[in-house]
Amino acid sequence: MNLQDALRDAERGDARAQYSLGEKFYYGLDTALNYAEAAKWYQKAAEQGLSLAQNKLGYIYHEGLGVRENYQEAVKWYRKAAESGDADGQNNLADMYVNGQGIARDYAEAVRLYLKAAEQGNVKAMNHLGCRYYYGQGVEKDFAESER
């Protein structure tokens, strides 16, 4: 989808087009890189329940790209994506629990989320889950399980 088509459809309220437009501004595709503009379009798509956009908006707030860094907002959007079953959202929310960013540190909840994401094939979650087993954070220490 070119920039003009994405903009037309996004302005009509199409969540997928809004997300696509956010991606164009985020990566500088067919336009100049503009994180603030990307955040605006991700927000519109996220508010319509598009989990890809919810996760990306969480990342935008987590890293402070085009918006003021805000861990509580990041947690809010990662949680929405995670609750929709988005594996990246589950992994990212689990990371926030591990690091105590925007939410109280809770290794057991992080493990629960990493497991959900890992069951969907999320490689980052598999790695992070292995670390939890290795260090015994939220689970019993289990070196064999950490290497799986």
Give the tags.
9 helices; 148 residues; mainly alpha; elongated
Point out poorly predicted stretches. none
> Can you count the beta strands?
0
Mean pLDDT: 96
User: What is the 3D form?
Assistant: elongated
By secondary-structure content and strand pairing, the structural class works out as mainly alpha
As a percent range, the share of helical residues equals over 70%
- Beta content comes to under 5%
- What is the multimeric organization of the chains shown? single chain
- Integer-rounded radius of gyration: 17 Å
Order of helices and strands: HHHHHHHHH
Task: Briefly summarize what is shown.
This protein is mostly helical and 148 residues long.
Describe this structure in words.
The chain has 148 residues and is an all-alpha fold. α1 packs across α2 and α3 packs across α4. The longest helix has 13 residues. It is elongated, with a radius of gyration of 17 Å. 43% of the residues are buried. The model has no long low-confidence stretch (mean pLDDT 96).
